[in-house]
């Protein structure tokens, strides 16, 4: 079949003029002073926010994981003095979803959950509407929970069922969750406006909220609840830095600072190599006859596959300028093979010529994908080519691994930092050998050992013992991968699979080319590693069987993928994991996940929970000075030392391995064919 034109093949319109940017409210969500708005950051924006508003000091990390979805990890500390430690911590996960975009006749509308999962004292839900008029941005909305505690009128959702009639106890030590969303007898109204002044970066904010601070008055009878109005200024001297200052009710001072970064513009993925650099083209096999030329191209991990195909095409046409009319390229990765691309030499030569008489879009339009290589070409003689080495491809990189837990029962932020060195040898016969060492150089996990009761068969609750090993073998494994067809891939891996487990297992993946879904299954038989042994190489206890049915859905014309896992976890508990994974062209990857397990674990409020959730951020470091290609920094923000809902961190997940040779990767990078 002839492939449709890829996204981005057409010319893009000029960039729009710079618009004034919205800024966070005191809790870290985009809004005014004390109330949220319906505004969203640009997709791929990460924002760090610090603020103080008596009696709270707030730290928040937000991620615009998709155009309509923002996820914020927030920590509120109840403080009596900013120079002293917080008297109490209130951690939370906030969600904000855009329901409608703004138009000439309607406002932007967003639905928000403050402490969607978190402490009930800070929990609220809201519906916000925002409309821009010249330099004014007006906001109004309805608030439930904390944001509706002023109780302006009856909860209108009560007509839809008894769930919404339930009373809310803001002082409860139980975690807030779906059972509490949009409940309560009364709700409140909030409104406000932001005026973007003629001074570049300076805006004036004013709002009227519906938070009556009744919970604080119950906790501290001497607390003086402020009036609900506030005014303030926000100043952004640069695109990525902002400061706020305001007053609430004429008596309480608000101050904030926020730093944002457009991760989609992250500059450190890779440095574009010269087209003459032979290391950028990894052609494993080349065959040719009078009908055509066929090459097997091994996909480089860091470079866009469209660029690699273009450089392989340039090389093939230069080797034999008067060669046959058809060119076939089959991309591969770690032994997996993608679809064969059949291109017309005339189109390729025009697009890659110095005069640029053709275009990538023209090559794409006349390309057949997937194509069948003619039998006589498959059996043709191999072409001797210095770029077709019969030897393994070696890779070497460093990983800075950061693990953070925003709150535990008796503490604030727990952390662990390690440096991992990884080496891989990718052999032409579908075999990969990998290994690496882990250097643990910093952590504060001592409290975990005394915080939780010991268990007979820990899964990850003894992470402090593993962190105590200065140097360990992180991984040492062998893998065999094979594609039964361009749509069906298999893999088998055995050895030391991750820091805490060794064993063997395999996967099968059905990822139909050109479709937006994939399904698969995996199974692993693993043993726990002994953290007190030399290099953590000894095994202990009986083996554990873990496995899952997996499914993925790629949102069309985006870099966002939804994932689902159903099966048995390392603690032999059953459950499901839902994830959202964003892979940006800059190499940055953000994954948000939540797991529901039949077993429970201690939660951050001293009780137990069946949920385990977190956020993973991966930043490539390949262009940093003296850093090898492929190096990266990984940060995982999730509760540490949990046993329920834990999965194996396998070295070569099939879905990830197949991504560089997928339709999405090829189509999204095809405009780089001429680079």
Automatic annotation (TrEMBL):
SUPFAM superfamilies: Porins. Residues 1-32 are annotated as: Disordered. Residues 1-13 have a biased composition (Low complexity). InterPro entries: YbjH. It comes from the Bacteria. This is YjbH domain-containing protein. It comes from Micavibrio aeruginosavorus EPB.
């Amino acid at each position: 079949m002839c492939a449709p034109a890829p996204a981005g093949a057409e010319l893009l319109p000029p960039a729009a003029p710079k618009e004034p940017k919205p800024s966070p409210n005191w809790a870290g969500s985009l809004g005014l002073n004390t109330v949220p708005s319906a505004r969203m950051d640009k997709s791929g924006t990460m924002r760090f926010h610090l603020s103080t508003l008596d009696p709270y000091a707030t730290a928040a990390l937000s991620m615009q994981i998709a155009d309509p979805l923002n996820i914020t990890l927030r920590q509120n500390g109840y403080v009596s003095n900013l120079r002293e430690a917080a008297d109490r911590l209130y951690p939370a996960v906030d969600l904000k979803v855009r329901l409608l975009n703004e138009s000439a006749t309607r406002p932007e509308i967003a639905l928000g959950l403050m402490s969607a999962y978190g402490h009930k004292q800070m929990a609220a839900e809201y519906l916000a509407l925002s409309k821009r008029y010249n330099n004014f941005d007006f906001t109004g909305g309805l608030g439930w929970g904390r944001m509706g505690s002023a109780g302006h009128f009856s909860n209108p959702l009560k007509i839809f069922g008894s769930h919404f009639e339930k009373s809310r106890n803001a002082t409860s030590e139980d975690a807030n969750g779906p059972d509490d969303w949009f409940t309560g007898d009364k709700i409140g109204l909030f409104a406000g406006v932001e005026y973007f002044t003629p001074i570049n970066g300076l805006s004036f904010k004013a709002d009227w909220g519906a938070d009556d601070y009744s919970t604080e008055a119950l906790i501290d009878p001497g607390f003086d609840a402020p009036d609900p109005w506030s005014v303030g200024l926000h100043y952004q001297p640069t695109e990525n830095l902002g400061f706020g200052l305001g007053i609430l009710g004429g008596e309480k001072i608000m101050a904030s600072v926020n730093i944002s970064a457009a991760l989609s513009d992250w500059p450190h993925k890779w440095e574009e190599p010269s087209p003459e650099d032979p290391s950028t083209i990894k052609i494993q096999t080349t065959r040719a006859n009078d009908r055509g030329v066929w090459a097997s191209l091994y996909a480089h991990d860091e470079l866009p596959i469209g660029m690699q195909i273009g450089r392989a095409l340039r090389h093939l046409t230069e080797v034999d300028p008067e060669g046959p009319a058809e060119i076939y390229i089959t991309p591969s990765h770690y032994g997996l093979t993608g679809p064969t691309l059949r291109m017309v030499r005339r189109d390729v030569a025009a697009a890659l010529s110095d005069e640029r008489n053709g275009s990538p879009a023209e090559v794409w339009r006349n390309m057949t994908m997937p194509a069948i290589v003619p039998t006589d070409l498959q059996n043709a003689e191999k072409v001797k080519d210095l770029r077709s080495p019969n030897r393994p491809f070696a890779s070497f990189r460093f990983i800075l691994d950061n693990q953070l837990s925003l709150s535990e029962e008796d503490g604030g932020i727990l952390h662990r930092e390690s440096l991992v060195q990884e080496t891989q040898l990718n052999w032409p016969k579908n075999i990969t050998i990998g290994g690496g060492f882990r250097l643990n150089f910093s952590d504060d996990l001592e409290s975990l050992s005394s915080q939780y009761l010991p268990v007979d068969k820990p899964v990850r609750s003894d992470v402090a013992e593993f962190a105590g090993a200065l140097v360990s073998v992180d991984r040492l494994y062998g893998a065999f991968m094979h594609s039964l067809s361009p749509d069906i891939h298999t893999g088998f891996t055995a050895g030391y699979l991750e820091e805490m487990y060794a064993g063997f297992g395999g996967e099968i993946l059905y990822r139909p080319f050109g479709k937006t879904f994939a399904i698969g299954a995996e199974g692993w038989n693993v043993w726990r590693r002994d953290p007190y042994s030399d290099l953590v190489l000894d095994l202990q206890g009986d083996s554990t069987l873990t496995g899952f049915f997996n499914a993925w859905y790629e949102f069309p014309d985006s870099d966002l993928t939804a994932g689902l896992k159903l099966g048995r976890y390392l603690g032999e508990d059953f459950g499901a994991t839902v994830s959202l994974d964003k892979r940006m062209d800059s190499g940055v990857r953000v994954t948000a996940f939540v797991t529901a397990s039949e077993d429970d674990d201690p939660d951050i409020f001293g009780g137990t929970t069946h949920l385990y959730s977190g956020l993973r951020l991966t930043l490539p470091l390949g262009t940093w000075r003296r850093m090898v290609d492929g190096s990266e920094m990984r940060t995982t923000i999730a509760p540490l030392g949990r046993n329920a809902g834990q999965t194996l961190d396998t070295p070569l997940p099939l879905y990830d391995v197949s991504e560089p040779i997928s339709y999405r990767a090829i189509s999204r990078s095809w405009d780089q064919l001429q680079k």
